[in-house]
Amino acid sequence: MPAFHSGETYNNAMALSEYYNVGVKNGSFMAELAENGYRVDLINPITRVCPEGANICEQQENMMLHAGEMIGIEAARLADLGLMRAAPGLLKKWVFKDNNGPLSRYRDNKELSWSGTRVYYGITVLQMMADKLWTDDTAPTAKLIHLFNSHPPYIFDGQCNYIGSKNPQDRPHMTMQVNCSMRWFVHLLDALKAKGIYDNTMIILTADTGAGNFYATDSLSSLYAQEHGLEAGEFGRLIGGANPVLAIKFPGETGPLETVDTQAQLTDIPRTVCQTLGDCNNTNGINLASEQSLSRQRPYNYYQWKHEYWQLNHIPGIVSYVVDGPLWLESSWTRNLSGNMPEVISTVTFSEQDNPEIY
Predict the structure, then answer these.
(1) Which of 20, 84, 90, 177 is the most buried (most CB within 10 A)?
(2) Where are the alpha helices (DSSP H) in 103-198?
(3) How far is CA 316 from CA 3, 301, 323, 352, in A?
């Protein structure tokens, strides 16, 4: 996340807390937009670090509480524990009514884990944004909405029907949940059009990582790999993790979606935004609007994140690569043996099977 705030690639010689302060609090292009008069809003800031001058910087649960959505969720939970347990048949049929009843959006969240709840709330945030969109002319607005809709557990089908919380972490279930997310993202685009502000709005749809989930029951990127003659497996996960979606709608653009062969990376976002809007100045990376055919070397740090890493100053087990060419081509990948190493290393252990890990 800090990488596409500031355009700075993570260097493991820097403590994580410092990287968030440098990359988000002080170095984010959104902090510069706020300084230049933009109303800057963020949902789900990682480690709760916010750009200087942000108007709103909240977790999604707090935003839903302000909008009254959480009150409805808790009311549905109490109704289920009380009235519906006493008269479950006709009453539930009316309130949920094939997912179109007055309480349908609150159904089934009561059985979800913490990770499942944040997925459920992410879909709800998109619904709220589309349904409650309003405009004014007091200041230009920049929003960074970080949601967990495409994360496991996979609990929605492509029509956004709840399908339970114990589904496999595989490509079919991931695809269905992403399709659900896109349905509400398109609904948000339609709301922008209805308010007459779609044409002059810059929209970036992206992710902080690609589909390279180590815990998945299959290779989530295997179909793409197979289309290019590659076998599914660890390399499929590697290229999947390095290949997040990146789609940009520039102000004033019309017409159908187009794909380009740009060798892009997430650190290009700040410069692209700043040079498009003209209201901030970030020189990291390239401007994806004007340098689309540029051939370049891109750094990529591969690691499998664990929750205990939040308590560390440095991320263990990073493997650094340089990518020069198409991501899916194995010959484009070179190990960066100089790597990014912490300034102080107390112990280095080597395994016959795994990459060296830093403690």
Answers:
(1) 177
(2) 114-131, 171-194
(3) 18, 11, 21, 17
